[in-house]
Amino acid sequence: MPRSVNSVSSKNRRKKILKQAKGYWGRRKNVFTVAKNAVEKALSYSYRDRKAKKRVFRSLWIQRINAGCRANGISYSKFINLINKSDIKLNRKTLADMAMNNPEEFNDLVKQINS
Asked: What is the pTM of this model?
């Protein structure tokens, strides 16, 4: 007796992969075996980069805070130490936003904790 093949499920599975590969270049978008590899790679990158994004943003915030601190004649590490000692509960994201968009308020904060 011949082996029965569920072509409906196979076609749907292939269609799902090719739909995920939409927008890729060359054979990656329309040849199933190539598209499958490309989609697997892309999914692994997306998982990895959801974690990496958090690290990248934290380093960006630190750079922005450091630039604001240097303009006021204090280093980043001393600033963070003084912030923690003075019991001001502002995270790096907020401090970076303040340093970029409200430099006068950031300068006042630096002067307040430095005195």
From this structure: 0.73
